[in-house]
Write a sequence for this structure.
């Protein structure tokens, strides 16, 4: 039987992401899994730097932005996680969203990814978003779409 030890939950702070977190919490309770919440933000200037200054890998790596996002994640989700007695960590990455999710999976020995079908801005209820599709198709571990 599949018993995930580490579950990744990518979040964009949407209601859809919160549903995915609730499902991941259900699984974590059942299997005593560790949760990893991840938010990826795309650097809007990265394309320009990639094109004109390729030697700069992350020229706008801003600790202040990272700290603010971690605080937002904790503010949004920590109460829910603690109420379910779950073990969770929060992380931030900068880059192309699906690529960073896939890196997080491989670098943190993730056994299962639980993610929203789409962000809160999409209206199609039955069609997975592009990030979800890319992760689902390229992930080396099972991906549960909520």
């Amino acid at each position: 039987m599949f018993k995930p030890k580490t579950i990744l939950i990518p979040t964009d702070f949407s209601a859809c992401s919160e549903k995915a977190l609730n499902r991941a919490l259900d699984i974590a309770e059942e299997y005593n899994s560790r949760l990893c919440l991840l938010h990826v933000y795309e650097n809007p200037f990265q394309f320009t730097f990639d094109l004109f200054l390729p030697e700069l890998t992350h020229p706008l790596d801003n600790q202040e932005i990272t700290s603010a996002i971690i605080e937002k994640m904790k503010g949004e989700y920590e109460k829910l996680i603690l109420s379910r007695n779950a073990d969770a960590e929060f992380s931030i990455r900068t880059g192309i969203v699906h690529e960073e999710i896939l890196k997080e999976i491989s670098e943190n020995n993730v056994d299962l990814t639980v993610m929203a079908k789409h962000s809160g801005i999409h209206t199609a209820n039955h069609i997975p978003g592009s990030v979800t599709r890319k992760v689902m198709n390229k992930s080396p571990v099972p991906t549960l779409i909520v």
